[in-house]
């Protein structure tokens, strides 16, 4: 799930708007879910691992929604760091497949 790594890298760069970043995060999370479901259907991954990935992806999406809603620069940076941490956590879970 290389696209999770690309999303994390994107979060570390200057981006056009927080709305675009949040939308990108939603798209990446949905793609990760689709791939995990395919692996689950093929019996290549345990159900509990997919459940954990889904949980982390949902938390990442919530963090990105808070990035989008942030008004102050310091709040934006805090929320962005939290979203990046969740993305790294999702990468670790996905790599355990």
UniProtKB/TrEMBL annotation:
It comes from the Eukaryota. PANTHER family: OS01G0676200 PROTEIN (PTHR36719), PROTEIN CHLORORESPIRATORY REDUCTION 41, CHLOROPLASTIC (PTHR36719:SF1). This is Uncharacterized protein. It comes from Saponaria officinalis (Common soapwort).
């Amino acid at each position: 799930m290389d696209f999770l790594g690309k999303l994390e890298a994107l979060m570390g760069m200057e981006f056009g708007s927080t709305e675009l970043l949040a939308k990108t995060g939603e798209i990446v999370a949905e793609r990760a879910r689709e791939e995990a479901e395919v692996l689950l259907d093929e019996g290549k991954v345990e159900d509990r691992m997919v459940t954990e990935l889904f949980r982390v992806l949902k938390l990442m999406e919530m963090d990105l929604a808070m990035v989008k809603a942030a008004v102050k620069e310091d709040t934006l940076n805090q929320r962005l760091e939290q979203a990046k941490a969740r993305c790294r956590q999702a990468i670790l879970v996905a790599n355990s497949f």
